[in-house]
Amino acid sequence: MAAPGIPPPSASQAAKADSGGGGKKSRHLPELIRLKRDGGHLSEADIRHFVHALMDGSAQDTQIGAMLMAIRLQGMDLEETSVLTRALAESGQQLEWPRSWHQQLVDKHSTGGVGDKVSLVLAPALAACGCKVPMISGRSLGHTGGTLDKLESIPGYNVTQSPEQMRRILEEVGCCIVGQSEKLVPADGILYAARDVTATVDSVPLITASILSKKAVEGLSTLIVDVKFGGAAVFPDQEQARELAKTLVSVGAGLGLRVAAALTAMDNPLGRSVGHTLEVEEALLCLDGAGPPDLRELVIRLGSAILWLSGQAETQDQGAARVAAALDDGSALRRFQLMLSAQGVDPALARALCSGSPKQRRQLLPHAGQREELLAPADGTVECVLALPLARVLHELGAGRIQAGQPIRPGVGAELLVDVGQWLYRGTPWLRVHLDGPALSSQQRLALQGALVLSDRAPFKAPSPFAELVLPATTAQP
Fold first, then answer.
1. Per-residue pLDDT for 102 more than 60?
2. Global pTM?
3. Confidence band (pLDDT; 50, 70, 90) for 22?
4. CA 365/CA 349 separation, integer angstroms
5. What is the 8-class DSSP label of residue 102?
6. Residue 127 vs residues 5, 219, 237, 403, 447: alpha-carbon distances, Å
7. Is beta strand 133-137 parallel, antiparallel or unpaired with respect to 175-179?
8. Nearest-CA neighbor of 134 among 91, 88, 86, 171?
9. Could you tell me how far CA 162 lies from the centroid of its own chain?
10. 132 three-class SS
């Protein structure tokens, strides 16, 4: 069965694909690798043969790595990228929902950042606005935090839910945040793991196919992708991020999926907390109608675009007002509480987390045994706090993984005690590190102090992380 929103191939197309396209036999994998290595075009039959080899185990690890590197170096055109996306999506089970839900089915994906806890806030906020959000999320990868790991820092939270369980949660709550099962897009799971160890993570066609294949099986009407750029993102500059955004929008349209892409800066951490438990606490603050202004703004911006593009708001401004109201009136927080209970958290704990003070919440979640504060080395205005060195030190302290499946320390993290743009006096605490085990090493302390960039200019208002919104070609900006 074809993925929802993906038209099934006709009998003639299927016959062509089976025979190699246009009556030609499928090439052997070494020939396909050579063709792409030399800049050639892979046919639909070529790509489907490669994906089939992934699934039946006939593709050797070396061949998978070689093909990924060939794609990374030579690229893929839109046609090849679309075929790869479709083939990955069709490699496993498809999610099915009531037809009456289609317009309400929406989701958001992020390419990964530091302190990015947007999904924890946005999913319940959209549910409070009447959406159905079947969010399939990932784990920590490299220096970036994973949504699943953040939620699993809440005792009892179960990211493993069957399609039947997901449907029940969507009916009762309106949102769920789950992991990718082995039955959903298994071919992408193989490529995803291989990309991480073959230096092919930053390939636009591979990123596009990975994101959209997972979202295609969700049967969505609308998807927004938060494409990060900057020092702690996959793409360092906005132009590279824009290339990915445009590819996502174009390939999504070919799959019958309405995709928009927001370009957002990832030089500074998002919000003031980094680390799994600390980010859950900050997400709860945002769901209280408070929290850091950059986090709240991004949640509202992304949510407003989703409501508008899915036809659930007449304009983005109207959508923004609805998302803001859901954060301020407690309805988003109530959805979050219901989602926690539906996914395994003891209802009493879920209620206490969502009704308690920040101090009470900290007692209910895992926390690190020690705290260490860093002091500003000089007077100056905070020009930026470099997210990458901060994330790398926290990774070393146990907040991230070196190998897949490795346990993490959910309480390890850091709180920013300053805002970008504010004046800071020498000796003022600017960072509080939460850690287990030995104190920070001199090298780690030096790396963290290097993350604080001071200047002598006058204090200023921190710029918004939101840079631009890339829309489908047929959509007019309101």
1. yes
2. 0.89
3. very low
4. 10
5. G
6. 21, 17, 33, 34, 41
7. parallel
8. 171
9. 21
10. strand
| The pLDDT of residue 197 | 82
Q: What are the helix (H) ranges across 386-456?
A: 387-394, 442-451
Query: 206 is written with which tokens?
Result: 């591979």
Catalytic residues: 107-110, 147, 195, 210, 214-215
Specify the DSSP class assigned to residue 174. Answer: S
Q: Are 317 and 304 in contact (CB under 8 A)?
A: yes
Tokens 């029940």 sit at which residue? 168
Strand partners, 283: none
Cβ atoms of 432 and 394 closer than 8 Å: no
**What would the mean pLDDT of 44-54 be, rounded to a whole number?**
96
Q: Average pLDDT for residues 229-254, to the nearest whole number?
A: 93
Tokens 């992991």 — which residue? 179
Q: Whole-angstrom Cα distance, residue 95 to residue 115?
A: 30
pLDDT per residue as tens digits for the range 376-431 = 999 999 999 999 999 999 999 988 766 666 778 999 999 999 999 999 999 999 99
466/230 Cα distance (integer angstroms): 12
Q: What is the DSSP letter of 235?
A: B
Burial of residue 130 (number of CB atoms within 10 Å: 0-12, 13-18, 19+): middle
Which conformational region is residue 20 in: left (phi greater than 0), alpha (psi within -120 to 50 degrees), or beta?
Answer: left
